[in-house]
Design brief:
single chain, alpha/beta, Rossmann fold, 6-stranded parallel β-sheet, 5-stranded parallel β-sheet, 11 strands, about 35% helix, about 15% strand
């Protein structure tokens, strides 16, 4: 096909998966200066794409305005009106994105879509007889889609830290930076990814005795309640849950010295800002390709229990019933790894 000038890209969820597209989109646009991209995703994620040259963000509310099949038709028509696209890139490959890309195909546009390596991941997560070997990084799978369209897409896989100035509104929460700042993102969508909260509290308790400031990240009302309780108990801790926009969170994250996170969005948001992450893994495994962009395997904390990983996304119930992969990790192990950044 002729060189594409304007590409339409889909990736609808989840936040971590969408965040992982950002370094790829930046690389594609910087290495193909004649290219323009319109990126379609949920309104909540728009802040991750601010300031990227030649990137248009189309916020699609798939729970309201564009819900269901009739909503997809409406979305298709709305996108058709925005520009004359040269190609469609599907970085999601779920039912919704398949329908949408085929609508564009019928209208004459070529498309390319991600190979998620589903069969390889089945071998990685089966038990017994799992095939425990590293699979392609998800960011490279994203990049492969653009390469398939003939676009230059080379990824450096390096953290690039560039602390942003904090606004007065953020400084009201954080105060001026006078010591080491540590982010703690203890939550995830699925239980198999969440380090037991009573043990996370023990990590916070131990760090509270050091000369550091702790910032707690989350999203839901329940997570807000938990983090407020920790804030009240530990002077070093400040809850940010539901207090900042995503743009403000990213600005604050850019000033952290290190983030502690599960295999979840916190890791990927920190990666966008060049911040090293001490990542805690339970039912999932970085071999599936979801380690944060530019993050070091040396900062991974995980148990080597033989049934792990049992799931790509952490959404399967523990067949042992005890989530030993998570409970086998001692809080002191996490504190020791974080202390390497304090000292």
């Amino acid at each position: 096909m002729p060189a594409a000038k304007h590409i339409l890209v889909f990736r609808f969820s989840a936040m971590g998966d969408v965040a992982m597209t950002v370094p790829v989109i930046k690389a594609v646009l910087s290495q193909n200066p004649e290219l323009e991209i319109t990126f379609v995703s949920r309104p909540d994620f728009e802040g991750c794409f601010k300031g990227i040259p030649r990137l248009n963000y189309f916020a699609a509310d798939l729970n309201l305005e564009y819900k269901g099949f009739t909503g997809l038709l409406k979305l298709f028509r709305a996108l058709k009106k925005t520009s004359n696209f040269d190609a469609v890139v599907d970085l999601h490959d779920n039912l919704r994105s398949k329908i949408l890309r085929k609508m564009f195909r019928v209208s004459g546009l070529p498309y390319a879509y991600i190979d998620k390596g589903r069969e390889e991941k089945k071998l990685l997560t089966r038990f017994p007889n799992k095939v425990l070997k590293p699979l392609k990084l998800t960011t490279e799978r994203y990049a492969d889609v653009f390469r398939g369209l003939g676009l230059q897409t080379e990824l450096q896989h390096q953290l690039k830290k560039n602390p942003q100035p904090l606004t007065g509104e953020i400084i009201k929460l954080t105060g001026d930076k006078a010591n080491i700042w540590i982010g703690i993102a203890p939550f995830a969508k699925h239980k198999g990814k969440i380090y037991p909260l009573e043990r996370t509290e023990e990590v916070i308790k131990q760090l509270d005795n050091k000369n550091v400031k702790l910032f707690l990240f989350g999203g839901s009302l329940l997570e807000e309640e938990i983090c407020l309780q920790w804030e009240q108990k530990y002077p070093a801790a400040t809850s940010l849950v539901r207090r900042l926009t995503i743009e403000q969170e990213l600005s604050l994250i850019s000033n952290l010295d290190v983030m502690m996170s599960m295999d979840s969005a916190g890791m990927h948001l920190a990666s966008l800002e060049g911040v090293p992450v001490v990542s805690v893994w339970g039912a999932t495994h970085h071999y599936a390709g979801f380690l944060g962009y530019g993050q070091s395997e040396n900062n991974i904390i995980a148990d080597d229990i033989e049934c792990r990983p049992c799931s790509v996304y952490g959404n399967k119930p523990c067949f042992r019933k005890d989530y030993a992969c998570l409970y086998n990790i001692e809080p002191e192990t996490i504190v020791a790894k974080l202390s390497g950044f304090i000292n």
